[in-house]
């Protein structure tokens, strides 16, 4: 999801406005890092990791280069590799199956549930084999899923919470519902860096130590490489900026949730169904609506009215050329809910930096588009 917006359109993020609101603290952080001469890892990253782990309700956090590398780091830490299989959803962003392929394993697709778009437990059970080592549960559109329904002996769960930072389910924060949770700090996310960044969180001290080595080419220090890894380090500059933004994160999440709930109420009155899940308090990142039969018409009306609405995602991952040759399990497995979602979903853009007048305008435009 791009942080850029079409010229003159209401988009998914305004990092420029966020910067203006936090300009003094962000500028201080940038000057501090540049003056220190320590630009990669170091004390800025350690400080951010400690603060982020506390904010997410986890024991440990490991800063990495971006959200996709966070998934790769997590799978490496779980020692997933050649000959292994990892179950991923047939609908969503490409990062999950891409990360599986990058560690040398095989992605096995499973269908999603219609209301939450999380992995279907029955489809996961049908996809499990003796080679299954992990399941990647993706919190699409800020919805955290019931990972307990996916659990099987000897199979780890990686929770991709890139779109759900701040979401809670049954009193627990997104990212803490599996062995490892992964996050992206792409600028349009609920917590955005001044560029790219990501993190993994876990309560397992050994997994945290492994991930800290994996992001540094698999070693504890230079020339001591004891496991597979890569260059997945978080820049000190990004860590310092993220630390500054963490101080106001609760207020920005509250603002995002309040706007999202207003938009969801308007959508329901207009006959659209927001993606949701029981016992989940989402942050609407973004607000995703299921619109049967007239999605494209509503999309066209919103865009004509200056709202950068989009389709996330127009194709099922199982049909994408890089992954279409991978085996299905069972052999005749189909993904009807994933396919249906590609034709019915619409994402409505908004962000915490909207003014009250802009929120009112957006609510009116959404209501008109759904008439």
Short description:
The protein has 371 residues and is α/β, with parallel strands linked by helices. The chain contains 12 helices and 15 strands.
Secondary structure blueprint with pairings:
Layout: H1 15-21, H2 23-36, H3 43-56, E1 60-64, H4 67-77, E2 85-89, H5 95-102, E3 106-110, H6 121-127, E4 132-138, E5 156-160, E6 168-169, E7 172-173, E8 180-184, E9 198-202, H7 205-214, E10 219-221, E11 224-225, H8 236-246, H9 249-269, E12 273-274, E13 280-281, E14 287-290, H10 295-304, H11 336-344, E15 345-348, H12 356-369
List keywords for this structure.
globular, 37% helix, 371 residues, 12 helices, 7-stranded mixed β-sheet, 3-stranded antiparallel β-sheet, alpha/beta
Structure, described:
The chain is an alpha/beta fold and 371 residues long. 37% of the residues lie in helices and 16% in strands. The chain has twelve helices and 15 strands. The strands form four sheets. It has a seven-stranded mixed beta sheet with strand order 1-9-8-5-4-2-3, sandwiched between helices. Strand 2 (85-89), helix 5 (95-102) and strand 3 form a beta-alpha-beta unit. Helix 9 (249-269) runs parallel beside helix 12. It is globular.
**What is the tally of beta strands?**
15
Computed Rg: 20 Å
> Proportion of β residues?
15-25%
Helix content: 25-40%
Estimated structural class: alpha/beta
The ordered H/E elements are HHHEHEHEHEEEEEEHEEHHEEEHHEH
Distance between the termini: 27 Å
**What do the pLDDT scores average to?**
95
Overall geometric form? globular
Number of helices: 12
